[in-house]
Amino acid sequence: MAKTVYTWEGIQKLAEIIRAARGHLSGRAFAKKVGLSPTSIDRILGGEVKEPELKTLEKLAPHLGYTRDELIAICAGDNSPQPVREYKFAEDLMPMVDQLPDREAAKLAQHIIARLTQPKVSLNGVKGEGVSFHLELMSQTDLADLLRAIATRVEKE
Predict the structure, then answer these.
(1) What backbone torsions phi and psi does residue 121 show, to the nearest 5 degrees?
(2) Which of 84, 132, 90 is nearest to 109 (CA)?
(3) Whose C-alpha in 38, 103, 130, 140 is 20 to 30 A from the C-alpha of 119?
(4) Which residues are within 8 A (CB) of 52 and not within 5 positions of it... i.e. 6 or more apart?
(5) Contact 30, 60 (CB under 8 A)
(6) Above 50 in pLDDT, residue 135?
């Protein structure tokens, strides 16, 4: 048997991360989303895979909120602190947002909407009076409908 740099604890940590990222999705749906077979995912979750292939880690990484190299370090049992990540694109956060319960995702949506509806550019130098270019993304009616839908979802839970 070939020697591996990965540890049992590291592989278990990877399985925990996959379970969290999968959330409410079935194993088959999650596997399809990441581009792997359901069997591959099941084998990792079941501890049968001692050394995941790099291609597997590359496919998983964007859906788990980690880079491939971070997943390699996790599998190797490297518990050293990772550098602080800077999130510059929505795609960087989507895997984490997908893990949130609906109530928490609704809070995040409310925060984002509040931020985007604040005036960003003042045409006359008076704060609070101006034009927000972000409002061009959504009509007032659509924005009101979205806020009502979020409020209703939060109230139900």
Answers:
(1) -130, 125
(2) 90
(3) 103
(4) 6, 11, 14, 44, 60, 71, 75
(5) no
(6) no
Q: Give the three-state DSSP class for 131.
A: strand
pTM exceeding 0.70: no
Query: Which pLDDT tens digit goes with each residue over 137-150?
Result: 566 677 677 777 76
The reported pLDDT for the residue numbered 33 is: 92
Which tokens sit at 79?
Answer: 């518990």
**What is the mean predicted confidence (pLDDT) over 82-105?**
72
What backbone torsions phi and psi does residue 131 show, to the nearest 5 degrees? -120, 130
Length of the chain: 157
Coil, strand or helix: which one is 43?
helix
Give the Cα separation of 82 and 67 in Å (integer). Answer: 11
Strand partners, 131: 121
Joined tokens for residue 99: 């893990």
